[in-house]
């Protein structure tokens, strides 16, 4: 595929992953159709328009994932669609009764719009590792490996859960399964790639911290809700799959550039416990205060077993320590978080 000769669409273009992906795509010469919930949000619009190449090759579209028909215009004329957007909380006043229904219907509607466009060759979905739990189906413990064959069982309770994180996990699991059903290996038909990403860290372009960044910092801020969410992820996934934002964006673009690609590919460069994260902070940043409880966690023997992206030729550039270092850098720039960690 010749770079700069096609248009691509990024849903959720102003988010943590979306904005970094838009910037990288523009830098490689692509014309980018990016969707935002609100084109009157000057902070997000100005950031996207500040990227190199934006004046010539960035087109912004207003589209709300609770009103999926709004994505049709953004998809038209594109060869590749990156579906990054995910509703975080249910928004009142729309036809959906909950976030799960909205997320799954959005996935279905966007895939259908891609097929109707007759230009989209491949749909690439920013999935979540929360959909790939290595828990055994009978709830008796964890499997030996976490890999692409793992699907999160949705019928039993996980310690430290709450309604929001349960809805998110269910939504991402069902949406990914829905999208994979649209993928085809037949020549001339649309391919679908899902990238269940681990917990994403690294410096953000937006002037605020994303949810995943605050998760990595929760052992330092001692935010009870976030600490509980971190523990939930470990109980769900045995350990935390970790990946740098730059590697996430590079993986998305890699999946676009491949001559043919279809199916599920886990995206993470490390698989560590919450205690390992706390120990790294203590070693690298001894001036920071970390509660003793963060150095203690269950020891699960599950190993990382995914290598499908590597087999395709993808190479990660950042280790998990760099992810944490960059999260600290972000924290230093946020006055509220800074005051909770460094004073």
From TrEMBL:
One of its GO terms (molecular function) is oxidoreductase activity, acting on the CH-OH group of donors, NAD or NADP as acceptor. Signal peptide: none annotated. Pfam families: Epimerase (PF01370). It comes from the Eukaryota. Gene3D superfamilies: NAD(P)-binding Rossmann-like Domain (3.40.50.720). CDD domains: FR_SDR_e. Residues 8-258 form the NAD-dependent epimerase/dehydratase domain. Keywords: NADP, Oxidoreductase. This is Anthocyanidin reductase.
